UniProtKB/TrEMBL annotation, chain A:
Gene3D superfamilies: Aldehyde oxidase/xanthine dehydrogenase, a/b hammerhead, Aldehyde oxidase/xanthine dehydrogenase, molybdopterin binding domain
Domain Aldehyde oxidase/xanthine dehydrogenase a/b hammerhead: 20-140
Record Pfam families: Ald_Xan_dh_C, MoCoBD_1, MoCoBD_2
UniProt-recorded name of the protein: Xanthine dehydrogenase family protein molybdopterin-binding subunit
Keywords, ordered alphabetically: Molybdenum, Oxidoreductase
Organism: Aquamicrobium zhengzhouense
From TrEMBL, chain B:
Protein name per Swiss-Prot or TrEMBL: Xanthine dehydrogenase family protein subunit M
Domain annotation FAD-binding PCMH-type: ranges: 1-170
Organism: Aquamicrobium zhengzhouense
Keywords: FAD, Flavoprotein, Oxidoreductase
Top-rank taxon, per record: Bacteria
PROSITE patterns hit by this protein: FAD_PCMH
Amino acid sequence: MGVEGIGARVARKEDKRFITGGGRYVDDMVVPGMKHAVFVRSPHAHADILGIDVSAAEAMPGVIGVLTGKQIKADGIGNLICGWMIHSKDGSPMNMGAWSPLAVDRVRYAGDAVAIVVAETKGQARDAAEAVEVSYQERDAVTSAVDALKPDAPQLHPEAAGNLIYDWEIGNGPETDAALARAAHITRMHIVNNRLVPNAMEPRAALGVYDKAEDHYTCWTTSQNPHVARLVMSAFYNVAPENKLRVIAPDVGGGFGSKIFIYPEEIVCLWASKRTGVPVKWVADRTESFLTDAHGRDHVTEVQLAFDENHRMIGLKVDTIANFGAYMSLFSSSVPTYLYATLLSGQYNIPAIHANVRAVYTNTAPVDAYRGAGRPEATYLLERTVETAARELGLSPAELRRKNFIREFPHQTPVIMNYDAGDYEASLSAAMQAADWDGFEARRSEAKSRGKLRGIGMSCYIEACGIAPSAAVGSLGAGVGLWESAEVRVNAVGTIEVLTGSHSHGQGHETTFAQLVSERFGVPLDSVSIVHGDTDKVQMGMGTYGSRSGAVGMSAIVKALDKVEAKAKKIAAHLMEADEGDIVIENGELKVAGTDKSVPWFQLALAAYTAHNLPGGMEPGLKETAFYDPSNFTFPAGCYICEVEIDPDTGITDIVQFVAADDFGNIINPMIVEGQVHGGIAQGVGQALLEGAHYDDSSGQLLTASYMDYTMPRADDLPSFQLSHQNTPCPSNPLGIKGCGEAGAIGSPPAVINAITDAIGTNDLQMPATPQKVWATIRSATRH
Amino acid sequence: MYQTNYHRASSVADALKLLQDAEDGKFVSGGMTLIPAMKTRLAAPSDLIDLRHIAELKGISVEGNKVTIRAGTTHAEVATSRELAAVCPAICDLASHIGDPHVRHMGTIGGSVANNDPAADYPAAMLALGATVVTNSRELAAEDFFTGLFETALDDDEIVTAVYFTAAETCGYEKFPNPASRYAMTGVFVAKNGGDVRVAVTGAGGDGVFRSADLEAALAANFDASALEGASIPAEGLMSDIHASAEYRANLVVVMAKRAVAKARRG
């Protein structure tokens, strides 16, 4: 490892511009003639649109145009799509309702876009938006997925009878039922995974520019995957063919999944730019973000975990209802199916698993992938159930887990996944030692003397990253391949540009990706630039989500580096009249091993471009492209332990200790990995203790639509984290990387809730464990 | 935010004239509630008349036990006043926990009491300390001043110029912040003068700040947290929302009262 190579704690290159206010976000983009857009949104959760009168708005000062759903339909702009086909267990394709970028005759959630107003200033656009008169006929609304399945529930889409999108299953039902029938013990739980609002620091934004002379569009957008945005907007929404549509995702201030999807606003801004003849910029305000960013989670699950007389898990049966909101967002269908139920085996050898998942429309914001996307839901239900089972069986939570750990690899689970490597015992032991598990009872007694309830809980998570083998996901219904591309361009003076289809919106790619190159060629980090986020610069890419940019994105770079290295060695061998196999790269030089002959890297690069003396038949230049398609998912895993103290008088929970022991495979930059874990745990603790999107049942209004009511985790809600790594390299990719972006958010919620339920002595508690809820739970437990 | 005209008043008289001349004017003295409401277009005054820079509204004076805090005094100034801390540390403690540093350097005591947010901290202190609210035209006892949720006895063209009170022998404030907004979800100010104990509650009452006669009676008999063991107050009439039911708030009132007493006794 060099000082700037693999494994080095290099400070993030991109932080200078972020910290000094030099970042360039969509809202910083200014183009000549640019005007401002505001969307008219439905104040109702469910209503028919009887008419829209834009005449008063059009007459307002500064207004350039007011456009509605009828016009966007007339211009042939398509409905939004869902990119992953799921079939119900009866073989029928999912029942997908239409989602027009601007609602035409019905609105289905509070915040649904109805019209766009373009004006000289944002203030004028806002004034005019208030003057758009929409005549609504209100309908009854339903916000809970469980309620939406009831026979008399309001119906959202004619395509989805009973609001049911699909009724899907995985695993082996009869075997699982048989296991339950012969079980010595069954632990049953009702688990609610609370709905979350992503809350990226930068709100969503779009700037659409139509160039009439060239008949060409440019879209600046807050996207985690600009190429996918271009593909979808081109192939499905009829905005423009790909060669006439450039999508740029510049600096993006956090995504957490919510910026994967293609939303109505960017499509409408592009279309409105052509319609009005001016560049159109829209930036969401915070309330719009709460209302319309795709939310996360929102599952209700019944789970049964069966044990034999030796406390071995013999069967797991899961029945989940997943709330999809008013429309199917781009990857919504995959989240509670292949990203969720395939992880239900956890770290355990469970011979029979069956999961049934019903996806349901409700009058709420669309729900899609949010940090972890399905894996937090699987981990939460399994790890709460295992902890509860240990209590019921009178075993320590560690002992029950150890009895059931998978210890041989590869391991084929009953739910598709084939785990390639791991050492669950190592993380469990490391975490217990770091947490001083054995000293807990003394700490509990001491806390009791202070009137506090102290509890400890653990969670052993596994997740799947590095998505994904294209053929495999294609066979499961994905509409795209999930490879990644890279291009390594060595300039004539030896500096290097890496073009990647991954997108960095907080992950630090400009640093970690450069470290790879620095390691390979011994060049300074500063001579390596990472280029991403622009479809005119990078040919194609699948973007960043699912902790895939290390395992997949960097693997593509490695492949391209291999090609560059091979060519460079050929040139060096030719220049030094040596055998190609004897060339080694050390400290920025290509050397003939065992001799004092060498060519500096920059001179080699220059030789490639002057082409005065290249091997016969070799093309000039030093630039290579690679596509990497993974051969398997990767399986990060670990053990988290949380220790809490609860004030029984107020119900407030204080996290006094949090230990995370993770296996991420090989690590490029430990500091960045630790940052990812810190952020992930903060979000996981947020879900466990604080956060929750709350809709009013009858009106369908989002009650938590600002920070006055939606509780984001803050520094004083969190302890210092104790982190460690027990890395087993991933065998399926060249760097041995598993991925670290979501683990914190996946592993932490059950650890927190297991600690709280340990403290208060009941297993019946749902997230978020707010002070009120914990107090009420303690009170009802004492009453009985 | 809609267009509005900003005026910086130079005196109370100037402020009154500016209001008179405005179509739909509103006084602002920190704007920690009003400005967010304007940003979300829930409030739309034609004119904002800023009282924060009026010299005669600035400053804290302490004479013996009599404390006068002029209306334009910021929370940060109250929190850090040594004079005040010498006679009534509880009010400094209260001010030091309002909002965040930005809020404390913008928000003023006059703005806070005039707004009478049901989750604001100062109204509890005013009520428990038996404060008098001084306006440009009259003086009102705190009990008469606070009349309901965001409601006071102020006339539209009346400006709070100061509050004054006699520092209690012993007093203390404790609040349980709303997890999201960090406003007081329940805050209790206790003040003891001889046998007279006042317990004022903010953040919990359906009609805003109120005094609890039951808790006052218990504490008058024995000014110690133990006097409230087993005490309860009725949930009826308390606020209920997604963060805290009326029952939970009723519990918090007692718990915060105990802690305020303990804090008061510690000094």
